[in-house]
Design brief:
The structure is a single chain. The protein has 2 domains: about 220 residues, Aldolase class I (TIM Barrel, Alpha-Beta Barrel), CATH 3.20.20.70; about 90 residues, no CATH class. The longest helix has 17 residues. The strands form 2 sheets. The chain has an 8-stranded parallel beta sheet with strand order 1-9-8-6-5-4-3-2. The chain has a 3-stranded antiparallel beta sheet with strand order 7-11-10, with no helix packed on it. Helix content is about 40%, strand content about 15%. By secondary structure, it is of the alpha/beta class. The chain has 14 helices and 11 strands.
């Protein structure tokens, strides 16, 4: 049987998570050159910026690259909710001698309606394309497969995994509740089983006829080995790479990660408008008791979140940042990405 590692063109069962805003072409290239699969997240950039990232990677590595897209439901503007959200956070801006934006906008375009991004992918043909928050239209999946692109999709439940399998992807990224960053669930307003990574991996390995990639709470070779023992074909690590030299994480994020024992990772919707796991900080505290229906849609809410973070950074306050990290963040080890892959391989 053709293994997932052969299909991806990698030697090690180690995948660096895309992490839009944190991962870089340099990080992805270092991981790929060390035998794993490097990834970039392009859900927050336009097609030409994404193209530039792909080409920068190719200037650093001849190996495979995973390009990750956001397939969320396009945001619905809710003027009253957005106005109330701005008013709720206005005291935080005032304390920073800053003014919040007068209105909010949808700062990211979902891949499901981005024909220009699709055209760019068909032109550049990265080895692997992965989907988060859902799936694109069936004909785009068919076109990418015809172009020889390997397709991955995130699932947080058996139902989502079966939907992905039916759509024709090649492997499932099983994202457990422990994972840092945004929950990949298709419907952020629907019920969430909150399955842990190992339970989800075992469930999918026994129920879905596709390779499974474990994601969430994995920080070392022992974690990868545990996932493999339960039926995963590889482990995907995100938080483990945040402190790497090639990461875009700012000084405040790195400091919070180094002190993760005092900043437990919590699930919040307040920063971006979708459930996401962040190191506990000022922003997560603000949103701890806010009902989800009072927060604007993703990524409209993120427009205000980014403005508040920028106002805080201007004053040397990093506690309003989207410090996405998983539950095992305190196991982080700062080092170059290539050396981290070597360490993971040795431990594995």
């Amino acid at each position: 049987m053709f293994s997932l590692l052969d299909q991806l063109g990698i030697r090690l069962p180690i995948i660096q998570a895309p992490m839009a805003g944190v991962s870089t072409p340099a990080m992805a290239a270092a991981v790929t050159n060390a035998g794993g699969l490097g990834s970039i997240g392009v859900g927050a950039v336009d097609p030409e910026s994404a193209r530039a990232m792909i080409r920068e990677f190719r200037g650093r590595s001849a190996g495979p690259l995973n390009v990750n897209l956001f397939c969320h439901r396009p945001a619905a503007a809710k003027p009253a909710t957005e106005k109330a959200w701005i008013e709720r956070l206005n005291p935080e801006f005032e304390a920073l001698d800053a003014t919040p934006p007068a209105s909010l906008r949808e700062i990211y375009r979902s891949f499901v309606e981005d024909s220009a991004m699709m055209a760019m992918l068909l032109e550049e043909r990265p080895a692997i394309v992965s989907f988060h928050f859902g799936l694109p239209r069936d004909e785009w999946i068919a076109e990418l497969r015809k172009a020889g692109v390997v397709l991955l999709a995130t699932a947080t439940s058996l139902a989502e995994a079966r939907t992905c399998a039916g759509a024709g992807v090649d492997a499932i990224v099983a994202q457990g509740w422990e994972a840092g960053g945004h929950r990949g669930m298709f419907d952020p307003d629907g019920p969430d089983e909150q399955l842990g990574t190992m339970a989800l991996v075992r469930l999918l390995a026994r129920s879905v006829e596709l390779p499974v990639i474990a994601a969430g709470g994995i920080m070392d070779g022992a974690g990868i080995a545990a996932a493999l023992a339960l039926g995963a074909s590889a482990g995907q690590l995100g938080t483990a790479f945040i402190a790497c030299d090639e990461s875009l994480a700012d000084d405040g994020f790195r400091a919070a990660l180094a002190d993760a024992g005092n900043h437990p990772a919590v699930m919040t919707r307040a920063i971006s408008g979708r459930p996401a796991r962040s190191l506990a900080n000022r922003f997560t505290a603000l949103g701890s008791d806010v009902p989800g229906e009072e927060i604007p849609d993703y990524p409209i809410a993120y427009d205000l979140g980014k403005a508040l973070h920028a106002a805080g950074k201007a004053k040397g306050e990093y506690g309003y940042g989207a410090q996405w990290a998983g539950q095992a963040a305190r196991l982080s080890r700062p080092m170059p990405a290539g050396k981290l892959v070597q360490a993971l391989a040795a431990e594995l």
